[in-house]
Design brief:
Layout (H helix, E strand, L loop, with lengths): L2 H27 L12 H13 L2 H16 L4 H10 L1 E3 L2 E3 L2 H6 L1 H23 L1 H12 L3 H14 L4 H18 L4 H10 L2 H4 L9 H4 L7 H8 L4 H16 L6 H9 L24 H21 L13 H6 L3 H23 L4 H34 L2 H16 L3 H16 L2 H15 L5 H20 L4 H10 L3 H29 L4 H20 L2
Antiparallel strand pairs: 1-2
Helix pairs in contact: 1-2, 2-3, 3-4, 3-19, 6-9, 6-18, 6-19, 7-9, 7-16, 8-9, 8-10, 8-14, 9-10, 9-24, 10-24, 10-25, 14-25, 14-26, 16-18, 19-24, 20-21, 20-22, 21-22, 21-23, 21-25, 22-23, 23-25, 25-26
Length: 541
């Protein structure tokens, strides 16, 4: 047994004793159950801390899930074990367990989308498209800074959906960033920073529906647009990516990853499964990558508006692009779009003669295989989220906000930001977070008031911020998958960037509560740039 393995074993033994202590305390102090109490936050906290300490995500997530169900059933091992897989019956419906989560139509759609994307990537690689594009880009993108900004720019352009963004940008830019010795951790950070933070300020996205659906008595889309200048986390994250890319600044553990990348180790010494046995066609050209990606984007947009009723004459969104997009189902739209893109690419490659039928068919199992780690992590993350919801973590946190809202007064925006961050970080879902908090925030503040806009913005910002650095967030998992980066390496290197921006955002929302003007945005940007400059002068001499 190696020293590393011995350390990991010791950590797990320590974790067992800590969990035993938690259960003993729970037994002695709690007679009414864990639901709706602070105990509801224990499972995700256990999973997150264990993952960050041991650097092993699968067992950490499973232990978190097991902890949650043990608390739910008051330490009844039999019921907890069965519920991990079967779930719990609530109002006649099985929910919370692994099987119900996988059986959920939305989640199944995401898994199919992952497989389709994996298949498409393998097809492109087999056709020689990635290799040809890499050679072309090598002549056009000649510096590390340009490669980073090009990755950022592509992420900005693909704002349709965060899942789609992560996987597409990663697939296209990996060859380029590898050639310029940019670590996969840095690539994953840029991908993640241009996923949810971009979608949350894009009016033409499914994310806008999260706001439009909870506010009555006013134009929902107009309200969403008004929140954009106050969404400090999203906007400052964009500034952070641009500034650190131009100035070549690496924060925290990212510096070590970038040093290793300069030596040829883009994975930062972390284990990752990469299929290097794919033989590329010698006939491959740049068009063999560019056209499939363009078709993927077009078909996914069509799929999204199709699911939103754009082509349905009986639907109120008929031929209304904005409303159809806002009310679309990302799961259905992305599956339709990706399936159409795979079929169109199949025909294109056959017509070009770069791949034969057997080579294309072999891409399906290979693409599935490439996505297995992401599918497994997502399944565990969804199940952990399910048991956390069963325990009522969202109800507990929302209750705290509702009780303290009136007394907080002008500090309400910064408090909402912290609460939304904590809930999103612990549950791994930004949608779930503002879905819970917005219905509480909206009724307690005057409609059409500036403080309402700021409060909604701080909720959206906190939700995205927590989701952005949570190891159990599906978007974070997708970013790791798109970059083919070790998941925990991505989380640990991204966390300092998130904290760096979050501190400035917190101060910004304190100011916003008093100023109640969009001038808080340029002030926050100035604070961020000064902080970045100060960091460079102090730590990067």
């Amino acid at each position: 047994m190696t020293g590393k393995e011995k350390l990991k074993l010791k950590l797990y033994i320590g974790a067992v004793f800590i969990l035993a202590a938690i259960f003993i305390i729970f037994t002695l102090t709690n007679k009414t159950g864990a639901q709706g109490t602070i105990w509801a936050l224990v499972p995700p906290i256990v999973a997150i801390i264990l993952a960050l300490v041991t650097k092993e995500v699968y067992s950490s997530l499973f232990i978190g899930i097991a902890t949650g169900f043990l608390l739910y059933f008051n330490l009844n091992i039999e019921k907890a074990f069965v519920a991990i897989f079967q779930g719990v019956e609530v109002d006649g419906v099985m929910t919370g367990g692994m099987i119900p989560k996988i059986a959920n139509s939305g989640n199944v759609g995401i898994l199919i989308f992952l497989i389709m994307l994996g298949t498409l990537v393998v097809m492109i690689n087999k056709a020689g498209g990635s290799e040809a594009y890499g050679k072309w880009a090598e002549n056009k993108i000649k510096t590390k800074r340009t490669a980073l900004l090009a990755t950022f720019g592509l992420g900005i352009l693909i704002f349709v959906d965060d899942y789609f963004n992560c996987l597409t940008v990663g697939s296209v830019m990996r060859p380029i960033t590898d050639k310029h010795q940019i670590s996969r951790a840095k690539l994953a950070y840029i991908i993640d920073a241009t996923a949810a933070p971009i979608c949350i300020i894009a009016p033409i996205s499914s994310w806008a529906a999260a706001v439009t659906g909870v506010v009555e008595g006013t134009n929902g889309l107009e309200l969403f647009i008004r929140t954009i200048p106050y969404n400090l986390y999203a906007l400052l994250t964009i500034i952070m990516v641009i500034a650190t890319s131009i100035l070549n600044i690496d924060i925290g553990p990212m510096r070590e990853h970038e040093k290793l990348a300069k030596k040829g180790d883009v994975f930062g010494g972390r284990e990752i499964i990469v299929d290097n046995n794919i033989v590329s066609s010698a006939k491959g050209k740049v068009i063999d990558l560019v056209l499939p990606v363009i078709m993927l984007i077009i078909f996914c947009i069509i799929g999204m508006i199709y699911s939103g009723g754009f082509f349905d004459t009986s639907n109120e969104n008929f031929h209304n692009f904005v409303n159809a997009f806002a009310n679309s189902s990302a799961s259905i739209g992305l599956v339709i779009g990706s399936a159409a893109a795979v079929l169109a690419t199949f025909v294109f490659y056959i017509a070009r003669g770069v791949l034969n039928f057997d080579e294309i068919m072999s891409a399906f199992p290979e693409g599935f295989k490439a996505m297995v780690p992401a599918i497994l992590i997502l399944t565990f993350a969804w199940t952990l989220s399910g048991v956390t919801n069963l325990l009522g973590a969202d109800v507990y946190v929302a209750g705290i906000l509702a009780d303290k809202a009136e007394s907080l007064n002008r500090f309400l925006p910064c408090v909402i930001f912290i609460i939304a961050f904590g809930l999103s970080f612990s549950t791994g879902t930004s949608w779930g977070t503002f879905g819970v908090l917005l219905p509480i925030i909206v009724p307690i503040l005057p409609i059409d008031s500036e403080i309402l806009i700021i409060a909604i913005s701080s909720c959206l910002a906190g939700a995205v911020c927590g989701d952005h650095c949570s190891p159990i967030s599906d978007t974070t998992i997708m970013a790791s998958t798109g970059a083919q980066c070790n998941h925990l390496a991505h989380v640990s290197t991204q966390l300092p960037y998130v904290v760096f921006v979050a501190v400035i955002v917190f101060i910004g929302y304190i100011l916003a509560g008093f100023i109640q003007s969009v001038i808080v945005l340029p002030i926050s940007i100035a604070m961020l740039l000064i902080a970045i400059y100060g960091y460079k002068k102090i730590f990067l001499k």
